[in-house]
Specification:
With 188 residues, this protein is α+β, with helices and mostly antiparallel strands. The protein is built from seven helices and six strands, in the order ββααααββββααα. α2 packs across α3 and α4 packs across α5.
């Protein structure tokens, strides 16, 4: 639902058919309130105001752990990449950077299997016609203590498990590595 121009969203913890290319087309160039509340409506409103007023726009995504902040961010990026016109390699790089950031900054917690353990600021650069030309992603407040200490039933950052799972036996042997279960920091 909306509270003014603020979208109040609830994480459904399941895949819903609300985030398709058809939905992007549906919410493109619509005023907030014309269609049911949706993260695409917020993204479109920001994009429209940026182009019309020639002024920077900002989406602040906040909520408690497991609220869907990471997913909402991905959906806004997906929407902006789809409607900005030319589909260039830079748009693809922006979308593909997110899984890398998640690997280094997300971990399994008791509340969320893909919990962001850091904050991020994403600055997307558009040209005069509204086409994405670049982006800057800054991370802050990384939960550094997680590297050497996790709460019971929680895990370290995804990257450590990804590296070990991605290596074949020969590579692990060459680097003198084993499975995740052999490392205290990965099995606490």
């Amino acid at each position: 639902t909306y509270t003014g121009s603020i979208l109040v969203a609830v994480n459904p913890y399941q895949l819903l058919p609300l985030y398709t290319v058809d939905q992007i087309r549906l919410y493109c160039n619509k005023r907030i309130g014309e269609l049911p509340p949706h993260v695409f409506a917020i993204a479109d409103n920001c994009y429209f105001n940026m182009k019309r007023n020639k002024r920077d726009q900002c989406c602040v995504i906040s909520g408690e752990s497991g609220a869907g902040k990471t997913e909402s961010t991905k959906l806004i990026l997906q929407f902006l990449a789809a409607i900005s016109g030319q589909h260039s390699w830079i748009e693809q790089q922006i979308l593909e950077a997110n899984p890398i950031l998640e690997a280094f900054g997300n971990a399994k917690t008791i509340r969320n299997d893909n919990s962001s353990r850091f904050g991020k600021y994403i600055d997307i650069h558009f040209n005069q016609t509204g086409v994405i030309e670049g982006a800057r992603i800054e991370q802050f407040l990384l939960e550094k203590s997680r590297v050497c200490r996790q709460a019971p039933e929680e895990r370290n950052y995804h990257i450590f498990y990804c590296m070990l799972m991605g290596m074949n036996t020969e590579q692990k042997k060459m680097l003198n590595l084993s499975t995740a279960s052999e490392y205290t920091y990965l099995t606490m």
